[in-house]
């Protein structure tokens, strides 16, 4: 138990404390040792009338409970008087909770100046006046906490509340600046966005939940935010129903609307680029005005260099391909006749014969090796093939890719970046169908040239397509597949003949023990895994892919693709099962649509996909070794193993006959059925997840004779040691 948070010796001012939230705050602060100034004008919630009764009642209640409080009846516009009350009664002030407010709604059209001013006076100016009166004391004593009460009407807007929402968001701006001005003096300002019961919430929430909009569930959040041990500053905290979360503004990565510094921006440029301006997929929070402006300056820096390197296409390559190339590529990236979804990539007469969408990534490395594009971009650098690495790759498919075509790929160096330890060259490669001139795909390859540097060029580029880290949670789905020792030898036939992937001597010069697998080959494996899992194998759902190649893979190693779904974006990371080392990172595939109806993982039969299979194998050995223990349980359990909630495999633990086998019981019915996610099964077996807790959290579902499962515990305990 942490020590109780206290306010002994502290003086807290709460405005509008005669009722509702304010009253609850005042009572809580006082109950934990604070001396409280209970301010209330005594008007009703529409701001009319005045009486001293409500503040007095709260003061009396606090005193009856043994606390210290005084009343103040001033309007918050006379904030100086409120603070004066604190100083006169208690000799100091430490916390100001600006809570007073009134509400009167009509539509914007009908609003008068007086209605606008009344709202701004109480909410914005009143909070300012009271806080400003306390500020000199805060600065002098190097301690102070301020709360402004905003509203989701301000953050999100609300019909009929134009004056109110404007004033409420005004408080956010005020807090943003006060947080900066007070930071060095330990004076922290935060905005609270409480949702208390009101007519609005009555309409939205079901009645039983509506009763949960209690001030008691909000007050502890304010209490913590104002405590001396809380370092939060300049934040917006939303809270209600016993929940709290932080809010902030984000900005899209936007779009430069002109080609160079001497070009103008026309309204049509804006129109044409609008979808990029408002594309929030890579939106981020900017933490300060310096950071926000700094990023813009970065764009201008890029524009300047754009001035010199013209927009011309640097190289063009023409290729023909047909079913032969498509199948070879698919085999190169692990497609197998054992996986029904792969047949479409392997058999030209299959109904849905198709190109694996990452096929066009092939043209990136081929173009960079077979043309002078890199040398032209780096005229003063001696290029050594063993020092050239494929750093990152992006590919977007614009149209359904034909299974046979003559295509033209246009290459353009977008930027050359000095990364200190080497140079990064960004090359855009766009592929067009020669037959009709239509663009089929656009790609970007980032080439890393190890050791080359010192030209003191810029470090960032607007052309960079960022990788995105996966969510912090455990992967939603995992698929593993072993590569063949001949994987690189096979993959080369797609046209990337870099000897690093086949010649032991070249590999040694580059510092590898053995020839390494092509990064794009691993990427092809993971692309298949993602499409199998989230697109029901349908390649036409593929939109784009981005990935960073972090570490080499040796042919023969086993790839594990960990996947996380975030709407239509599937984040993934590929790691080596043998070493646990991540090899493809920051990666994602964007899909047009997600299709998960078909349970996927069991279709890759022959490949070991489920981690729980190994667990059951071990349990099986254990049962054979300890037949007596198994006999004691004398029951049949069916395990229903799921991945992403879909049943994937079944195992029978038959302790009557001392047998563990895949599938349902060979005769009769199971005494109990246990449904559990593959990953949770492993956690339970490893002793990392307590089965009882798993059961209570709904991670382990049991039907049938639950009591019998208690007896399983001993068996599992013995097992843990073996795993
Ligand atoms: C705020 O404006 C609305 C009209 O949008 C008005 O009905 C309401 O009375 C105003 N509030 C106050 C306190 O004047
Ligand atoms: C608030 O104060 C903290 C602690 O000094 C500081 O880290 C933070 O940057 C400040 N916030 C703002 C918005 O200035
Ligand atoms: C700058 O952009 C304009 C408009 O796109 C173009 O006409 C002009 O040639 C460009 N100038 C340079 C120096 O690239
Ligand atoms: C960009 O190009 C224009 C037109 O050639 C030139 O006037 C201008 O000085 C250049 N700007 C920079 C920063 O090089
Ligand atoms: C296995 O789990 C799935 C998903 O929870 C469920 O729909 C199915 O009924 C379960 N099967 C058995 C035999 O309990
Ligand atoms: C980044 C981007 O798409 N820029 C485009 C903005 O619009 C102009 C035409 O108005 C295009 O030339 C740019 O490519």
From TrEMBL:
Species of origin: Lasius platythorax
One Pfam family recorded for the sequence: MFE-2_hydrat-2_N
PANTHER family: DEHYDROGENASES, SHORT CHAIN (PTHR45024), SCP2 DOMAIN-CONTAINING PROTEIN (PTHR45024:SF2)
Gene Ontology terms, MF aspect: 3-hydroxyacyl-CoA dehydratase activity; isomerase activity; oxidoreductase activity
Protein name, UniProt field: Peroxisomal multifunctional enzyme type 2
Domain of life: Eukaryota
Keyword Lipid metabolism: yes
Listed pathway(s): Lipid metabolism; fatty acid beta-oxidation
């Amino acid at each position: 138990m942490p020590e109780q948070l206290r306010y002994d010796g502290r003086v807290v001012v709460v405005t509008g404390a005669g009722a509702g939230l304010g009253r609850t705050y005042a009572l809580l602060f006082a109950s934990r040792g604070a001396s409280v100034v209970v301010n209330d004008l005594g008007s009703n919630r529409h701001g009319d009338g005045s009486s001293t009764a409500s503040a007095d009642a709260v003061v009396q209640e606090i005193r009856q409970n043994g606390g210290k409080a005084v009343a103040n009846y001033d309007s918050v516009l006379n904030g100086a008087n409120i603070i004066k009350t604190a100083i006169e009664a208690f000799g100091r002030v430490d916390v100001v909770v600006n809570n007073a407010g009134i509400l009167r709604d009509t539509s914007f059209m009908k609003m008068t100046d007086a209605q606008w001013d009344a709202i701004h006076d109480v909410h914005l100016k009143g909070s300012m006046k009271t806080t400003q009166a306390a500020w000199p004391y805060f600065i002098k004593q190097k301690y102070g906490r301020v709360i402004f009460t905003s509203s989701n009407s301000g953050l999100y807007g609300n019909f009929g509340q134009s004056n109110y929402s404007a004033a409420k968001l005004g408080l956010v701006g005020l807090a943003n600046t006060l947080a900066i001005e007070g930071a060095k003096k330990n004076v922290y300002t935060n905005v609270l966005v409480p949702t208390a019961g009101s007519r609005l919430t009555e309409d939205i929430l079901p009645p039983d939940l509506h009763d949960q909009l209690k001030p008691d569930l909000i007050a502890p959040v304010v209490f913590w935010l104002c405590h001396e041990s809380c370092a939060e500053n300049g934040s917006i905290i939303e809270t209600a129903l016993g929940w709290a979360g932080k809010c902030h503004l984000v900005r899209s990565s936007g779009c430069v609307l002109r080609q160079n510094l001497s070009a103008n921006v026309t309204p049509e440029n804006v129109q044409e680029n609008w979808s990029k301006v408002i594309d929030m997929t890579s939106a981020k929070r900017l933490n300060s005005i310096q950071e926000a402006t700094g990023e813009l300056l970065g764009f201008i820096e890029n524009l300047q260099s754009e001035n010199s390197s013209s927009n011309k296409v640097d190289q063009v390559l023409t290729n023909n391909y047909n079913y032969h190339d498509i199948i070879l590529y698919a085999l190169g990236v692990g497609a197998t006749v054992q996986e029904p979804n792969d047949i479409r990539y392997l058999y030209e007469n299959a109904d849905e014969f198709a190109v694996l969408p990452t096929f066009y990534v092939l043209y990136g490395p081929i173009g960079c090796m077979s043309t002078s594009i890199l040398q032209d971009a780096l005229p003063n650098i001696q290029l050594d093939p063993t020092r050239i690495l494929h750093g990152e790759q992006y590919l977007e498919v614009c149209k359904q890719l034909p299974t046979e075509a003559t295509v033209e790929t246009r290459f353009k160096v977008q930027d050359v970046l000095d990364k200190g330890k080497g140079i990064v060259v960004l090359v855009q490669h766009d592929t067009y169908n020669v037959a009709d001139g239509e663009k089929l795909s656009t790609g970007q390859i980032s080439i890393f040239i190890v050791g080359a540097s010192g030209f003191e060029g810029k470090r960032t580029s607007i052309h960079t397509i960022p990788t995105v880290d996966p969510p912090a949670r455990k992967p939603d789905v995992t698929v593993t597949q072993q590569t063949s020792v001949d994987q690189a030898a096979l993959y080369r036939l797609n046209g990337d003949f870099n000897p690093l992937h086949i010649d032991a001597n070249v590999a040694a010069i580059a510092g590898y023990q053995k020839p390494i697998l092509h990064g794009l080959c691993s990427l092809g494996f993971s692309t298949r895994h993602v499409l199998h899992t989230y697109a029901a194998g349908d390649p036409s759902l593929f939109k784009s892919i981005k990935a960073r190649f972090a570490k080499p893979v040796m042919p023969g190693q086993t790839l594990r693709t960990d996947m996380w779904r975030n709407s239509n974006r599937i984040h993934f990371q590929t790691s080596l099962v043998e070493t646990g080392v991540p090899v493809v990172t920051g990666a994602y595939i964007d899909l047009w649509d997600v299709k998960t109806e078909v349970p996927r993982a069991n279709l890759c039969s022959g490949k070991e996909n489920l981690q729980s299979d190994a667990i059951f194998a071990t349990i099986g050995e254990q049962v054979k070794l300890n037949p007596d223990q198994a006999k004691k349980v004398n029951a049949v359990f069916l395990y229903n193993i799921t991945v992403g909630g879909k049943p994937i495999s079944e195992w029978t633990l038959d302790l009557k006959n001392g047998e563990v086998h895949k599938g349902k019981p060979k005769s009769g019915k199971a005494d109990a059925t246990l449904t559990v996610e593959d990953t949770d099964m492993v956690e339970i077996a490893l002793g990392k997840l307590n089965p009882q807790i798993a059961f209570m959290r709904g991670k382990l579902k049991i039907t049938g004779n639950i009591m019998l499962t208690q007896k399983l515990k001993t068996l599992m305990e013995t097992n843990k040691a073996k795993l």
